[in-house]
Amino acid sequence: MDRFRMIFQYFQSNSESVMNGICGLLALASVKMYTCFDFSCPCLPWYNMAYGLGIMFVPPIALFLCGLILNRQSLVMLEEWRRPQGHRKKDLAVIRYMCSSIMQRAMVAPVIWIVVTLLDGKCLICAFSSSVDPKKFVGFANASLEQVQQLLAKVPCKEDELMRNNTSRKAVSRYLRCWSQALGWSILLLFIAAAFLARWLRPCFNQATLLQARHWSNYIDIEQKIFEETCCEHSRLFAHKCILHFFESMWQEIKLQSFSLPREEEGVEREEDLLRGIRHQDQVNKLLKMWYYEKPPL
Amino acid sequence: MDKFRMIFQFLQSNQESFMNGICGIMALASAQMYSAFDFNCPCLPRYNLVYGLGILLVPPFILFLLGFVLNNNISMLAEEWRRPQGQRGKDRAVLRYMFCSMAQRAMIAPVVWVSVTLLDGKCITCAFCTSVPVEILGNTSHPSLSQGEMKQVLARIPCKEIYDGQELIANEVAIRYLRCISQALGWCFVLLMTTLAFLVRALRPCFTQAAFLKSRYWSHYIDIERKLFDETCAEHARSFAKVCIQQFFEGMSTDLAAARCHPPRKAPADAGEATEKLLGITDQGTMNMALKSWHRCKPPLHLHPPALPSGNGWAGEGQPPVHPPLPRRETAAYYSRV
């Protein structure tokens, strides 16, 4: 009984920490991926915007989906949502609670990617360098429209021969980076404030419902784990009985073939029990062949 | 038995995490292999395409097959697929479940390779450098070259040291363009794969949950049954070997005693455990004979019926034989039937 209680407590405490751990790992992986990624702006008029915004928004979607896939609770929630009602009623509040906790955890890595991208600035510089007002910058004010577009598109590429020593390029770059970082910090502040308010104000609304929903969502999770555990245990016992039965039936067959009376003795050695009457090489070979060609019925 | 049960539970509960661990290791190995690989674009018109696409597509195929090879369950799947029906029906759904779960795990390393390759950009740059749109990116003032010559020049784009078409199209411009396309493809591929994985996982509970639970249970059952059978056979083999060797030593000692015309030495009633374990062999000569016999002439794989726990130590006296007993002298000839 003690052992079961310890297992229960282990599952209970560890489900949340496992999910938080996965969340943290995914966030770290997101930062690592960004630093490893070799950002190279194409520096061509329409491609810049597509590339810059693509790098800013496509990986977060992939990270969000990864967060949902890696979270075991999302499967549990889907199963609970789709199961037939049967004898047990469905509580939508529990499903909503599980959904919201899964979404919150899955959102962490994408938000981190977007914030890191904005604080670094390369994406925004690449995407919006063609959209700045050329009149604000001395080097671009006097060129024709087409030329200006081409030149502005090349701003993110420091090594380009046209841009190498252009001071206006640095001005545009600084301007866009400033906007990018301001946006990044604002988004970070917004999310942290939202998280703070959500945690702080939650006890003011529906605390009882929340406690119930949390309890029952933990219950569903643990119930599923224990069901899987029990199925494993059951299949192990089933297999054990099946194999013993198979050996016994071989033993009976051997006894019948030898036309001898079964001996019931006290104090037969343990080794004889384990041998189960199979004492010849041929008998062993026959047993192994029977096992392959004619497995016993389940 | 308790110890075995704990080990089995550990293996069972950990088999999933063990397989996931192997999966993760292969994915990391795949990324590491790519970074260690020294990519060398040939910079010749047709070779570029073959080399680039080959590096993009051949290693993932190898990694996929390796994923199957490293998975222990492949032999279990093959065994279950090929076994004769006998008294137990075969369930195709179980086979499909086992195959699908193995294939999903084996797909991870190839997907990582393809993503890393596309995001790095070298392969696509090498493969498609001859297809760069020169009209859009190139310098319009350059005199036109023939198709063949143009391809020759463009093929050298990935090799900066030997590129001689700077007037035609700037090297950096072309490389940036190709790398942008490659990275866009890479991220789209990553998004596609994660969407597919998400759909596969999310749609299963909506449609086939009961069938899934059944297949999962029976595939675990087949695995456990195989392990337990191996375990039982190992136990049996151990007991078989123990009894065979005991009978060999007993046979040796009684034969030698008979050859010297001594009566068989009876174990005294108050003999200690150590004396019993000596199995009647108590001098150097006998031991040497036993060792030589064991090497030259191993006993047949045929155990004699067990001795009754009677007072005297001589086996084979006064008991009904279970099997047609072979006379002792024949077994003393020690022919090996292995």
From TrEMBL, chain A:
Keywords: Ion channel, Ion transport, Membrane, Transmembrane, Transmembrane helix, Transport. GO terms for molecular function: monoatomic cation channel activity. Signal peptide: none annotated. GO terms for cellular component: plasma membrane. Its main location: membrane. Belongs to the CALHM family. This is Calcium homeostasis modulator protein 3. It comes from Nipponia nippon (Crested ibis).
Automatic annotation (TrEMBL), chain B:
One of its GO terms (biological process) is ATP export. It is a multi-pass membrane protein. GO terms for molecular function: monoatomic cation channel activity. The keyword Ion transport applies. Its main location: membrane. One of its GO terms (cellular component) is plasma membrane. InterPro entries: CALHM. The chain crosses the membrane at residues 21-37, 49-70, 184-203. The keyword Transport applies. It is found in: Membrane. Keywords: Ion channel, Ion transport, Membrane, Transmembrane, Transmembrane helix, Transport. Residues 312-338 are annotated as: Disordered. Belongs to the CALHM family. This is Calcium homeostasis modulator protein 1. It comes from Nipponia nippon.
